[in-house]
Design brief:
The complex is a heterodimer of chains A (136) and B (572). Chain A is α/β, with parallel strands linked by helices and 136 residues long. In chain A, 33% of the residues lie in helices and 12% in strands. In chain A, strand 3, helix 5 and strand 4 form a beta-alpha-beta unit. Chain A starts with 9 loop residues before the first helix and ends in a 10-residue tail after the last helix. The N terminus and C terminus of chain A are likely disordered. Chain B is α+β, with helices and mostly antiparallel strands and 572 residues long. Among the domains of chain B are: 192 residues, Neutral Protease Domain 2 (Neutral Protease, domain 2, Orthogonal Bundle); 70 residues, Immunoglobulin-like, CATH 2.60.40. Helices cover 27% and strands 30% of the residues of chain B. Chain B has an eight-stranded mixed β-sheet with strand order 5-4-8-2-1-11-14-13. The longest helix of chain B is centred in the first third of the chain and has 22 residues. The two termini of chain B are 42 Å apart. Classes of the chains: A alpha/beta (136), B alpha+beta (572). Chains A and B meet through helix 3 and strand 2 of A and strand 11 and strand 13 of B. The structure holds zinc ion. Zinc ion binds next to helix 8 of chain B.
């Protein structure tokens, strides 16, 4: 990753306990996504995701995560150093997902905001996979 | 495999001069017509070549495909991660398969299969690019050193190319749906998985689990086997659809279904039932797929469980009639009962249910959970699944319908060649394996003549061999133990011999007696059978030697329970 914009992200990579969700600043999330230091995971079901989603978010339903007994099925898709921001509609399913990710030793945070709030915060743009994370 | 193909072939054999167009179902729509014709042509070609194959020595390609030689036997598959991109317009596939395996014997070479029109971009072992040689569709991969027995190894096989179509339905097909949108599907049991992805293309060895990542245009969806894991926008107009298979899987069962699907679903306890159909067919599907739940309940009644509960069950609309892809069963029966709207067994029972839903889903138990270790023993898939149809009919509609339905299959049987073929040479057995296989099991039920024990045995076969590959001999061993007698000559006669057992009866009306014996190829053949008066059968135990029974019945009145035992009867 580039260091240009990492000034706001040190909390993502420390060894400290997960930050309580109310302290997560969406601007910092946006930067982390832009830096490719994190991914945005939509833990709603596929049919919900198909209807309306933050552009570029990864659909990974909670129903699937609940089935996981080990980290192995996630390994092809999530490297060990990936930080996960999970969201759903109200932050309930995403909180359950974060507990699973955490148990599987991923660094994960639940976002209480719904799709529209996340798009309004610019997460859709930041999350576009091919967009460069570097400042112009 | 969908058994419509068998019927079409037999139609063609009887009426050799009819055009293929005559074989397509009368009610198919304009859109379906060309697909159908192509599909039938493809299958007829496959089957014709198969039946020819039985009359000549196997080719080098068949031996490479079917032989489980040193370069396959030296390793045991653990895992695949197939990760490819599909361009429906260019009909182009590119990507890689990560293959993890354990060496069972020290060696420096293995065999993987990939049709020869694909380009092998590179094969990588850690940081090392491996050398390879190709012989037809076999790829021999050379390692720079001996891989010790017991070690786990992983290679990444990168490839690209346009799949060669065989009879236009060649394992993978690039079609358009009726609205003109791309529809890319695979069904490669005949052609083999290596027609579209690099794999150990044989039946004996299955990976313990698998990940499938398919990237398709953003406006399309891919449905594959296993549990949906995630959908990732790749940012270049393509979306990656990821699925995880958490059970062993036959390589030909690995499938992709790329289309403009809508999804609906339901649950049965903890089991998820998910349906994927074209938006225009949603209402019809919502009605027709109501049959899935009672079918599941029927099979769960017999077997105690659905074999792949972690991965769920999916039923997916496709442009061909259907295929048993594990946990991703495909469906193209036109949302009508019977086989494409027609009475499949011709005795008035088939129209009560959707043949493709029941048959292809039945394979989840036999074919997918219990699998044959060699294509020679494919009756374990098709004969058993045809019998599962009969079990379904019995559970849903009662014994009388089941008896009619089962016997309805008799006139589809040719009895022209054995239904188990030579091993190790990829000789697909004659289509009789479906119907004769089912009628053979029906016969065994009546030989045992104890339904409680019979259903327990049917379940035990499933329990014993699920998630494994088996050969017929292993089934025979279990049957012998549970029957408490040696059934080997009976299995031999029905599966490895062409002719049906013939019960020869000689009446002596003056003496009020009948002499009886079996006329068979197997000298040790001895099988009980019910004779006398319908409703008041008496069991006799004929062997190949003459025996005599006293009877008041004349030759005309003396009946044999040929609806319970699939045999021929000759009266003198
Ligand atoms: Zn079948």
């Amino acid at each position: 990753m580039s260091n240009n914009n990492s000034w706001g992200l040190s909390w993502l990579f420390g060894n400290s306990a997960p930050v309580p969700e109310h302290t997560i600043d969406l601007e910092q999330v946006r930067l982390a996504l832009q830096e490719k230091a994190a991914i945005l995971v939509d833990v709603r079901e596929l049919n919900e995701h198909e209807t309306h989603a933050v552009p570029g978010s990864i659909c990974m339903p909670l129903s699937w995560l609940r089935e996981l007994r080990s980290k192995q099925p996630l390994e092809p898709y999530l490297s060990a150093d990936t930080t996960v921001f999970a969201h759903c509609v109200k932050g309930i399913r995403s909180q359950a997902a974060v507990e699973i990710f955490t148990r599987l030793e991923y660094r994960a945070f639940s976002l209480p905001q719904g799709v529209d709030a996340l798009i309004a915060a610019g997460l859709g743009l930041a999350n576009q996979p091919n967009q460069s994370g570097n400042a112009p | 495999m969908n058994l419509g193909l068998a019927r079409f072939l037999s139609t063609r054999c009887r009426q050799g001069k009819r055009s293929y167009a005559d074989l397509r179902p009368a009610e198919s729509t304009a859109i379906w017509r060309p697909m159908w014709a192509a599909w039938v042509v493809g299958l007829v070609l496959v089957l014709t070549s198969n039946s020819l194959a039985q009359q000549r020595p196997p080719t080098q390609a068949e031996l490479l495909r079917g032989h489980y030689g040193r370069l396959r036997a030296n390793n045991d598959l653990l895992y695949y991660h197939l990760d490819i991109r599909i361009d429906p317009e260019k009909k182009f596939i590119s990507g890689q398969n990560t293959i993890r395996f354990q060496m069972l014997a020290a060696d420096d070479r293995i065999q993987i299969d990939l049709y020869d029109h694909f380009n092998i971009d590179r094969i990588v072992w850690g940081e090392v690019e491996l050398k390879h040689e190709r012989d037809g569709n076999a790829v021999f991969i050379q390692f720079p050193e001996q891989l010790p027995a017991g070690t786990e190894q992983s290679i990444v096989f990168h490839y690209s190319g346009t799949p060669k179509s065989q009879g236009r339905f060649g394992g993978i097909s690039f079609e358009k749906d009726p609205a003109g949108r791309p529809w890319v599907t695979t069904a490669c049991e005949g052609e083999g998985s290596s027609i579209w992805w690099p794999s150990k293309d044989q039946w004996r060895d299955e990976p313990e689990s698998m990940d499938i990542s398919i990237a398709v245009r953003n406006d399309l969806m891919n449905v594959s086997n296993g549990r949906f894991v995630s959908k990732v926008d790749l940012g270049d107009g393509y979306t990656q659809w990821n699925y995880h298979v958490s059970y062993p899987i036959n390589s030909y069962n690995v499938s992709i279904n790329v289309g403009s699907y809508v999804q609906f679903g339901e649950t049965l306890g903890d089991l998820t039932l998910d349906y994927y159909v074209l938006p225009e067919d949603l209402e019809k599907a919502q009605e027709q797929f109501k049959q899935v739940k009672p079918m599941m309940e029927a099979f769960i009644h017999y077997f105690g469980e659905y074999p792949f509960e972690r991965d769920g069950y999916k039923l997916i609309q496709v442009p061909y009639t259907g295929m048993e892809h594990q946990t991703a069963v495909t469906y193209g029966n036109g949302f009508r009962n019977g086989y494409y709207g027609r009475d499949w067994t011709g005795v008035g029972v088939s129209m009560k249910f959707d043949f493709i839903i029941i048959h292809e889903s039945g394979h989840e138990w036999f074919g997918n959970a219990v699998s044959a270790a060699d294509v020679s023993d494919m009756w374990i898939h098709e004969g058993w699944t045809t019998y599962l149809e009969c079990m379904y009919v019995e559970r849903l509609f009662g014994y009388d319908d089941a008896l009619k339905y089962t016997n309805g299959y008799k006139n589809k049987i040719a009895n022209r060649s054995p239904i188990v073929t030579e091993r190790g040479s990829h000789q697909v057995p004659h289509q009789d394996m479906y119907f004769k296989g089912a009628l053979f099991l029906h016969t065994l039920r009546n030989v045992l003549d104890d339904d409680t024990k019979w259903w327990a045995l049917v379940r035990e076969v499933y329990e014993t061999f699920k998630y494994k590959t088996a050969m017929t001999e292993e089934l025979i061993e279990l049957f012998n133990r549970r029957f408490g007698q040696d059934l080997t000559p009976i299995f031999q006669q029905y599966l490895w011999r062409t002719a049906l057992p013939k019960l020869e009866l000689k009446f002596d009306e003056g003496e009020k007696s009948v002499a009886y014996r079996w006329v068979v190829d197997e000298p040790e053949f001895a099988m009980p059978v019910k004779v006398g008066k319908r409703g008041n059968w008496q069991t006799i135990r004929p062997t190949t030697e003459w025996q005599t029974l006293e009877t008041e019945l004349s030759s005309n009145d003396f009946d044999v329970a040929t609806d319970l035992f699939y045999i021929r009867v000759a009266k003198e």
